[in-house]
# Entry
Amino acid sequence: MERFYTFFFVAGLGCFALAFTLSMVFPWMSLDGYHGMDYQTMEDLAQTPSAEFVQLSEEYPEAFEASFGAVNSESYAEALQLGRDVYVGQACWHCHSQYVRVVSNEAQRFGPASTAQEFQNALNQPHLWGTRRVGPDLGREKGKRPNDWHIAHLIRPKNVVPLSVMPSYDYYFEEDGTPEKEGFALVTYLQWLGTTYEEEGNTP
Ligand code: HEC
# Structure
């Protein structure tokens, strides 16, 4: 009987070691340094303000200046962070995923499948993969639509997609459609989604 105790003790330790390797060591190896996946801070991400951010400043000079001042990496970082905060606060993630799966020909709809690398940055942690898709995946939203489209859509989705069930976010915009600070931020953030994938030069 004694040797069975020893057997189970050793087997128990073995299972622990296996689980530790599979769920801790392997994931760590696949992210940190081992595959050259450097973590990008907000400073790295916001170095060059996007063309869409610049365009918002040109189209709504006064409102933009009142909200963010001039276009530079600091104001761009502020807009991105606020955009993400509003996205989280409004639970946009409840209806939208930010994760292109490798199955069901998703790449044809949303672009190349998501990679671990593109979530290694300040704006994607904690990630917003979401669990449901009432609306489309937004992980590759950058450049799919012009700023004006996003503004019209956020004010009243049915303006541009007649059968849409997405709620209206008109309180982030003035009567004439000029964005308030949160409106600018949301559009800036949407126009950023997917950037980290391209910047790293990954191809599927
Ligand atoms: C109740 C579910 C729901 C919520 C909450 C929701 N959406 Fe949507 N969204 C949809 C649906 C459905 C569509 C597809 C129809 C349409 O384009 O309006 C959509 C479409 C979109 C699109 C267009 C994507 C494209 O390129 O076609 C964007 C961008 C978007 N949503 C952003 C947001 C943001 C930002 C929020 C939060 C402020 C949000 N959504 C909250 C359901 C939702």
Observations:
- Residues 87, 90, 92, 94-96, 134-136, 138, 141, 144-145, 157, 161, 164-167, 169, 186, 190 surround heme C (CB under 6 Å).
- The CA atoms of residues 95 and 132 lie 6 Å apart.
- The chain has a mean pLDDT of 91.
- The two ends are 56 Å apart (CA to CA).
